[in-house]
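Problem: given the chain below (61 residues), write out its structure.
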Amino acid sequence: MITKLKNMAIGLNNAVRNKKGMEMVQVAILVAIAVAVGIIFKSSVTDFVSRVFGNLDAANF
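Solution.
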């Protein structure tokens, strides 16, 4: 019984120290937020980019 508890404690300790999994979760959340914002504001971003490139084209650089 004590050996099982020690093994569980060691496993928990290793899991807490392993931060790579948490970093992957954070990256996944940030990507999901970026995609959601992109979908929500798709028309606004498209209009803005079209205006900017239209103005650059009209400026005859």
